[in-house]
Amino acid sequence: MSPALQLALLGATLVLPRAQALTCQRATREFLINVSEMPLRWKADHEVCANGWGCQDTLILIDNGLQVNIVLTKGCTPVGNQDARITEHRAGPGLSVLSYTHVCRQEDNCNNLSTTLPLWALPSTAGPGSLRCPVCLSKQDCESVTKMTCPAGSTHCYRGSIQLRGGGVFTVLRVQGCMSQEGCNVLNGTREIGSIVVSEDCSPNAFLTCEWGSELHTGRNLSRMPIRWTTAHKICDPGEVCEETLLLVDAGQSSVIVESKGCTKGRTQDAPTVSIHSGPPGVLVASYAHFCSSNRCNRARSTSVLLNSLPRPAAPTPGDLQCPICVQGSTPCPENPENVTCPNGTTHCYSGYIRLYGGGIISKIHIQGCVTEASSSLLNHTQKIGIFSVAENSEEPLEPFLQDGAVPTRLLAWVVGLGLSLALWCGMPLC
Questions:
Q1: Domain tally for the chain?
Q2: Are residues 253 and 348 in the same domain?
Q3: For residues 266 and 399, what is the distance between their CA atoms, to the nearest angstrom?
Q4: Signal peptide location in the record (predicted)?
Q5: Neighbours of 31 (CB within 10 A)
Q6: Of the residues 90, 188, 338, 346, which has the fewest C-beta atoms closer than 10 A?
Q7: 419 by DSSP, 3-state: which?
Q8: How big is the chain by its Cα radius of gyration, in Å?
Q9: Is the separation of the CB atoms in 123 and 38 below 8 Å?
Q10: Which one-letter DSSP state was computed for residue 305?
Q11: Residue 265: which domain range?
Q12: pTM for this entry
């Protein structure tokens, strides 16, 4: 076969390199707007591509009759040329999913789509049917859902989540609306749309989103002065739930509080739990733990979810014992610290550490302070506090494992003795 004939046969797919790199329009946009605001226009930046790369447009519209979610990505791509194409992945009336894809190399900025107009037709003229469904498009939760009368031909109410990732996009959209068929199939089997991979899940905890982040604070009065709990968020892996854990160590003159929010496997939903591992007088070790399974349910906004539930006994009278006081979350306590008079009721000086692992935290909290004889071991061999694996005065390896987070047995009598001062336990608002 002659070279000319070979070239002719390959002409439909062969892309010859340009003498110089292409310049393409570049943008990543996500919009959630009312149907009345359609069609929509946008502007794009520009980028210079690698040699041989082309320009691409990917546009996805998800419409439930009241709102439209728009996802756009455009820029350079190594993918071969593809003619501009409009696809109805799911046609209305009711929920609809449409897309526009295009890959080109014929000239600079050939990926010049700037409006949803090619995908947007006039609203359906289908009359109302008898079915009513909740209708929602949201990146959060569909908590306040509007119900609407579905168009004629609708037979089922859809509720699911769609994940879109690729081309600079990573998002999960909660979707509810009217459908003309049963099942979790609003995407009609589609797995890729241009540069974006799409997936669908209609299980209750599909693509669970949790608040996420961890911090360690050192200071004074952290057992009385709340700290704002600021976090980002992340999409969990299948089977995970949300968690939030606080651990407070307070020796009176200094304190540490450790915070964790995120996703975790192997736990079920539990009500918020406050535990006092070692109580006053002397060193206070207390924790808050919460596991839950709805989007961003680990939304405590400050450490007051723990502090509001701590006992507030009257100011103790000074005793006869003197001990060094120190709580530090990174470096060891000073070798020759100043001694401080302990509160009445304490009988021993404590010097040790608690190691933490889990929830984004690997740390050793160094502790010196006053304790009663009954609380000379601050954790009483507790090995799990919320998401944290913990060990006291031990260098044994720490590994996450499941354990009930009950209040230590040795503290039950002390807890009962506090009487009404602990009435706030588990009854506090989530701040």
A1: 2
A2: yes
A3: 14
A4: 1-21
A5: 15
A6: 338
A7: helix
A8: 30
A9: no
A10: H
A11: 209-422
A12: 0.69
